[in-house]
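Morning, I've got a small favour to ask if you have a moment. I owe you a coffee for this, so here goes:
>
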Amino acid sequence: MTVSQHIPVATLGVPRIGRRRELKFALESYWSGKSPAADLLATAKALRAASWREQHDRGVSKIPSNDFSLYDHVLDTVAMVGAVPARYAWTDGEVPLDTYFAMARGN
């Protein structure tokens, strides 16, 4: 029996950017129009999966969820609760990525 089988191990999450700054490069590529949103979202998905896998492999038994953000956790909350300022002309439903990043970058 190992210690991790008896003592729960938890983390608060891991840096979302990736070991080789993959998220940064995917964001810059999307913002510049060099890659589609699907590529950005695929990179984000792969980073989340890698973080969960690494934590599991290192013996973390209480792996956090919802600790990832494409930009900022406060902005995620704004989008989640629909507190989008009127100037972005959002009406209802999921906040589009372009609107999300417009808010993030002050456009």
Residues 1-65 form one domain.
